Amino acid sequence: MPELSAVALICTLTPSPEPSSSELMAQHILDELEGHGVATDSLRVVDHDVKRGVQVDMGNGDEWPKIHAKILAADILVLSTPIWTGHPCSVAQQVMERLDADLSETDDDGRPVMYGKVATVAVVGNEDGAHKTIADMMQGLNDVGFSLPAQGGTYWVGEAKQTVDFKDLDQVPDAVAATNAGLARNAVHLAKFLRSNQYPAK
């Protein structure tokens, strides 16, 4: 059986090549997944011309279809977003809006195309809102058809009203590292199960 694969959509507002806490957090998770033999890939959504809308392809140079193809090809999705004003950032919300189109996309057996895929969520910030942000993202991902592993969300939130970001830390805090490891382990377990036990067709 081919190895599992994962793709991380990094929803930072910061274009490459500037450092990004969201990208760093996602990379820690991808490193954990690679330790379980998962092939990984990642991209910053803001680096691509993703049009506003709720269709799979909005035309006029829309680059979402290329990103969408990467999601369809992967077994595991890692969605990484910063907190802004207590909420997922606008790029993460845009990703959810574009994924909304998949509510009406089905496979050859009539199942939603995201059935059988696992989604995890990573959040960084220096203000409150991590649990709400994870909850918002997970609800939307589950609505589209992704499956969520046990403890499939991870976060780091710095001291409120300070300027220290996740990328400024000398090392990943032990609690975050342990959470990331558990997230990856459970995501791989669920992805392997779904690979051989797909949801029933309609």
Structure in a nutshell:
The protein has 202 residues and is an alpha/beta fold. Helices cover 36% and strands 18% of the residues. Strands 1, 2, 3, 4, 5 and 6 form a six-stranded mixed β-sheet that branches.
List keywords for this structure.
Multimeric flavodoxin WrbA, FMN_Rdtase-like_dom, 202 residues, six-stranded mixed β-sheet, Flavoprotein-like_sf, Rossmann fold, alpha/beta, 36% helix, single chain
Describe this structure in words.
The chain is α/β, with parallel strands linked by helices and 202 residues long. The protein has a single domain, classed as Flavodoxin domain (Rossmann fold, 3-Layer(aba) Sandwich), CATH 3.40.50. The protein is 36% helix and 18% strand. It contains 5 helices and 6 strands. Strands 1, 2, 3, 4, 5 and 6 form a 6-stranded mixed beta sheet that branches. The radius of gyration is 16 Å and the shape is globular. The two termini are 26 Å apart. The model has no long low-confidence stretch (mean pLDDT 95). This is Multimeric flavodoxin WrbA. InterPro entries: Flavoprotein-like_sf, FMN_Rdtase-like_dom. It holds the Pfam family FMN_red.
Number of strands: 6
Please outline the major beta sheet: 6 strands, mixed
Q: Could you say how many structural domains there are in total?
A: 1
Main CATH class:
Alpha Beta
What general outline do the C-alpha atoms trace?
A: globular
Gyration radius (Cα, Å) is 16 Å
The end-to-end span amounts to 26 Å
User: What is the percent of helical residues?
Assistant: 25-40%
Could you tell me the strand content as a percent range?
A: 15-25%
Write down the CATH topology: Rossmann fold
CATH superfamily caption? Flavodoxin domain
Order of helical and strand elements: EHEHEEHEHEH
Structural class: alpha/beta
pLDDT < 50 runs, ≥5 residues: none
Q: How confident is the prediction overall: mean pLDDT?
A: 95
* Number of helices, where a helix is a run of at least 4 consecutive DSSP H or I residues: 5
- Name of the CATH architecture: 3-Layer(aba) Sandwich
Organism: Pseudarthrobacter enclensis
Domain NADPH-dependent FMN reductase-like: 16-160
Protein name: Multimeric flavodoxin WrbA
